[in-house]
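Please fill in the sequence for the structure shown.

STRUCTURE ENCODING:
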């Protein structure tokens, strides 16, 4: 008997059809993977099971959990189920956590609500589950707030909340998107252990075919709200009967064709961006680095040991030096919390180093006033890790994407701004009709595409990309990587990719820097580092990185 049984589920919001006759089941102790492109209806299927749908949503069909009719259940019944019998890991950890409550309070809250345990007992159980997901008490006391954690650490808190009461069914919506590959392997092992120990059903929603193949007993592939193919993981992914399954498998292994940068090609641009390209000179290859980081450190005050006593300072970045040449693509890889994003903020002059200097196009940008940084900011942009947190939810897409245009010396007219924003959206796979929408109207992957459109609209010299494709499905990821490669070849845009995904680093970068506990411990050509790592940190990353070929071979052996 299935723990979760979905039959002929259809969902409409207003006049728009979201799901069409979806069939899905999860048995106790079984892992079912739900795969599809961004906007295919994966998350809405999960939200229907949790009954967290918008007020205008209308669901038809049958959704039964452990004998309970979910579509007919009252809100009181669902409150008793959520967090106790059904746990859920949401896609974006910062929007799932309460910013004004400590992580200890948030993990203990569900425990106290469902078990009526006292505060001390609930906090003790919260401490144990946080330890198990990789947040030990020595470094991460219960008094920490979400903003004090990195993206990957916040995701671990969300997983701890969902698993605290050992639910019968866990719905994991992109549970490892923000995690480094070492921690991802640990979290997947944890989820696998929970399934075996508690006979828990797991519905794993992910765009990462390697992860789904590694974890799932069965797989369901969705597109445009419909199930394209379903069956045992090995048989479905090896047979690839449906053309869409074949398309996803090819896209997940896509390597963009990279061409060397030609300065003459950089002078050419589309009509929509002609004014941007014409107002700056194209960098020609020379010995001067585009970005030069010299012995940079960043210290943060340690936690107070007493009212008057200060703690030991924390070295987020410790004596780091690196160079990025014009048109070069560099990957900065490392475990969550190792200092990658802190270093990126200093390169972007969003934070000031405690020691050392940073130069951009030969000019020092560290320790400068905001007004003095405007010429540099014109030629550098950023794609943030959390797309929703980087947008003003009250503004429409047109204004958000066109925001960097205020840095240009020649201000475009309103008509030109709209045309340039529409062109930027087109380059990342969206349409001009999206200009008048708000961020909340897009899926997580679509919001990341908006972030990339905003970053490329001024045709900058440097783009710092903090996990630029982590929230994208494999098809769109292939398009975005092709776009990055094309801009690199045509315009000589240099990239600093901050990524946990070694597949992305291998596909799009010339050089890899491995960061560990604030220091660069290994650097060199991408193929050399990823094929023959020397440092312990690099070896751990390479060993833990998911691989579709390896995962499928193992799954075929398991399932015969």
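FILLED IN BY: designer on duty
SEQUENCE:
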């Amino acid at each position: 008997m299935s723990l979760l049984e979905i039959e002929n589920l259809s969902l409409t919001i207003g006049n728009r059809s979201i799901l069409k006759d979806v069939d899905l089941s999860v048995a106790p102790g079984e892992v079912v993977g739900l795969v599809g492109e961004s906007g295919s209806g994966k998350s809405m299927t999960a939200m229907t099971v949790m009954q967290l749908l918008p007020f205008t949503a209308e669901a038809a069909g049958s959704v039964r959990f452990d004998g309970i009719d979910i579509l007919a259940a009252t809100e009181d019944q669902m409150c008793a189920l959520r967090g106790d019998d059904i746990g859920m890991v949401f896609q974006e950890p910062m929007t799932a956590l309460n910013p004004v409550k400590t992580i200890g309070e948030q993990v203990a809250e569900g425990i106290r609500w469902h078990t009526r345990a006292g505060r001390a007992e609930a906090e003790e159980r919260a401490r144990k589950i946080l330890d198990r997901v990789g947040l030990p008490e020595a470094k991460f006391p219960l008094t920490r707030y979400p903003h004090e954690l990195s993206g990957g650490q916040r995701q671990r808190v969300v997983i701890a909340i969902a698993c605290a009461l050992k639910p019968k069914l866990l719905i994991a919506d992109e549970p490892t998107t923000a995690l480094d590959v070492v921690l991802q392997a640990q979290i997947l092992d944890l989820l696998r252990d929970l399934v075996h120990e508690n006979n828990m059903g797991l519905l794993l929603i992910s765009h990462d075919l390697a992860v789904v193949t590694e974890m799932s007993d069965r797989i369901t592939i969705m597109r445009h709200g419909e199930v394209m193919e379903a069956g045992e993981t090995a048989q479905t992914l090896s047979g690839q009967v449906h053309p869409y399954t074949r398309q996803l498998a090819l896209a997940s292994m896509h390597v963009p064709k990279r061409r060397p940068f030609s300065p003459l090609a950089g002078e050419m641009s589309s009509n929509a961006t002609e004014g941007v390209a014409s107002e700056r000179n194209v960098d020609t290859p020379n010995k001067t680095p585009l970005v030069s980081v010299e012995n940079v450190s960043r210290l943060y005050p340690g936690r107070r040991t007493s009212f008057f006593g200060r703690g030991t300072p924390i070295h987020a970045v410790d004596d780091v030096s690196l160079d990025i040449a014009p048109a070069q693509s560099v990957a900065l890889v490392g475990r969550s919390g190792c200092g990658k994003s802190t270093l990126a903020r200093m390169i972007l002059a969003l934070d000031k180093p405690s020691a050392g200097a940073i130069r951009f196009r030969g000019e020092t940008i560290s320790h400068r006033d905001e007004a003095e940084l405007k010429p540099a900011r014109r030629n550098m942009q950023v794609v943030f890790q959390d797309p929703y947190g980087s947008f003003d939810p009250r503004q429409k897409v047109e204004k958000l994407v066109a925001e960097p245009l205020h840095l240009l010396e020649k201000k475009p007219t309103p008509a030109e701004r709209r045309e340039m924003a529409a062109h930027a959206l087109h380059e990342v796979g969206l349409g001009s009709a999206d200009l008048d929408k708000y961020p909340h109207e897009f899926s997580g992957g679509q919001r990341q595409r908006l972030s990339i459109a905003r970053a490329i609209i001024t045709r900058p010299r440097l783009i710092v990309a903090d996990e630029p494709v982590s929230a994208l499905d494999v098809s769109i990821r292939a398009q975005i990587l092709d776009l990055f490669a094309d801009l690199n070849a045509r315009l000589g845009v240099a990239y600093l990719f901050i990524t946990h995904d070694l597949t992305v680093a291998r596909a799009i970068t010339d050089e890899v820097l491995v960061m560990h506990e604030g220091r660069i411990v290994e650097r060199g050509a991408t193929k050399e580092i990823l094929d023959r790592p020397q440092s312990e940190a690099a070896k751990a990353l390479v060993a833990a990185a998911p691989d579709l070929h390896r995962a499928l071979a193992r799954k075929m052996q398991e399932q015969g």
